[in-house]
Amino acid sequence: MVQVRMTVNGREVSGEVEGRTLLVTFLRENLGMTGTHVGCDTAQCGACVVHVDGNSVKSCNMLALEAEGASVATIEGQAAADGTLNRIQQAFQDYHGLQCGFCTPGMVMSAAALLKENPKPTEAEVRHYLEGNICRCTGYHNIVRAIMAASGQDVAVAAE
Q1: 47-57 pLDDT, tens per residue?
Q2: In this protein, which residues make up the domain named 2Fe-2S ferredoxin-type (predicted)?
């Protein structure tokens, strides 16, 4: 067992992990942050997306030890302390960008990374950026609409 320390959603945390422990497992099992989902364990679906030192990563494909000393942001840290949704979360709610909700945390975290990098993406850029995230319910139309709305742009997105 090895001690790992990091800052998660602005809070210093630490824990003992085996060297092979994935970041997603550390977040879920050691810290109780179950908003980050495990969908495939192969970095294909994007349900486990978190931000590590400002970069969007699939936490099922990163060891907890690799996040030693890092700043990690999860879906639990996106809303305000009083529970008020951030603009991306609110847009997902307003534009029905979710159904079962399983992929939603990863989609929101990916959208946050996109909008940080490109505050006014085109519809094509949003669709391209989301290629690493799989939704088995919505068909992406409303997810794209939500992200466009969160960017402050027209939500008239072409049907797929």
Answers
A1: 999 999 999 99
A2: 2-78
